[in-house]
C-alpha cells in the first residue's frame, strides 16, 4: 500500500517476453529531455528545422456540443465550430499542440496535452483501483495488439482467445508463431466455468494472456456481464495471467432491445452521470493487481482513419511498450494528434460525453431497426438471434440440421454454411459466415478431458453489421438474407 492508502499494482514483470525484458533504454531518446530547455543549444538529434515543414495551419469544421441537430447532421453556421492549429506555439490556444512540435520527432508516449485529456477521461469512466497506472498512445488497437503480443509472448507460447474472435487479431498471433487456445462461449460471451475447466486441466506452462473483445464482441455481438467479468478476473488472479481487453466498442452500449416500439420512446440517456453509470464495468475498473491491459481507440467513436488509440495499464508494463514503440511506430501521426487534441480541447470532457451519448442513441436506433427486420424476415423455424446490447454487430444463428440436404452432405454444418453464403450472394446481400472467425488453435501440450459444446455440431451463424449502410438498405439487405434462408431450407 502507498502512504495515501492507495494500492500499487502487483509486480507482473515475470510475464514479459524475453524480447521485452532485453530491450534497453535508448540513449538518444533520453537526450531529448534537454530539447528546448532554456540556454540549451540542442545539436544532438537529427531534427529538421520546423521552418521547412510545409504546414503553417490546419483547420477543420466540427460539430458544436451539445449537438442540437443530432450527430451526423449536416453542419450549419450555427452548429459548427472551426478548430485551427498553427505551426508556432504562440499562435495557438492553450493546451493545443503546435505543428512545429507534433510534426517533429519525439513524445513516443503521446503528446502531453492529448494524454492528459485521456487520463482525465479514463479516471472519470473507469476509476482504476490502484495508483501506479498510466497510458501511452498507439496507432490504434491493431498496432496495440501486435505490440502486446511482442511484449508478453515468444514464438511457441500459448494465449487464450474467445472461441470466435476477430480474424485479424488471430492472424497477428499466428504470424508471430503464437498458439491461440479457444475459450468456450455462449450468446453472452466467455463462459467463466469453461475457462476454469480449461485451465484446471492444462498440462505444461500456463498461458500468459487472455484476449477478449468483451463489449459488443466481434464477431458475435455478445457482451460480458459485470458478474462474468468479476469471475473471469478472479480466474486471472488465480492462474496468474493478464487480461487484454480490446474495447473499441465500449461506448456503443445500448438499452436492452424491446419489440414494443412505444416503450423505446423516452429511454434516451441525456445526463452524463446516468450515461457513465449505465456502462458495464470494464475489466480495468475491477483490476486491483494491475493485470489488465486495456486497448482503447478512437476508431469507432471518431474515425478509423485517424489511426489513434491508447493503451492503459500499470506503469512497469507500459514502460516496455514505450521501448518497443521507440524502435517501431516512433509515435502516432503528428497531424492526427494535433487535430484530435484540438477537437477534444474544444469539446472538453463534457462535450466529448455529449458526443458519446449521441452515438449511443444512433447505434441503439440502428440496432433496433436491424432486429426488427430479423424478426420480420428471418424464418423462426430455423433461425434465432440474441439482440446485442453493444457494438456494431449482430448474429443470426441457424440450425443446419434442419436443412433438407443435411444428411446428404454428411451432416457437415460448414457445407450448409457455404450453401447459404452462396445463396445470400445470389440474392444480393452479404453476411459473413461465422466459421471465418473460428479460433483454430489448440494447447500444446493438450488439456485433459475437456467438454464439448454439442450445439457446435449442428449450428452455424452469420455476422452482420448495422453500422455500414443507411437504414433502408439495412432493412432491404436483411429481407434478401431472409429470403436466401427460406430458399435454402425449402421454406419459400
TrEMBL record:
The keyword tRNA processing does not apply. It comes from Candida parapsilosis (Yeast). Its EC number is 2.6.1.57. This is aromatic-amino-acid transaminase. Belongs to the class-I pyridoxal-phosphate-dependent aminotransferase family. The lineage of its organism: Eukaryota, Fungi, Dikarya, Ascomycota, Saccharomycotina. GO terms for biological process: aromatic amino acid family catabolic process; L-phenylalanine biosynthetic process; lysine biosynthetic process via aminoadipic acid; tyrosine biosynthetic process. Keywords: Aminotransferase, Cytoplasm, Pyridoxal phosphate, Transferase. Pfam families: Aminotran_1_2. One of its GO terms (cellular component) is cytoplasm.
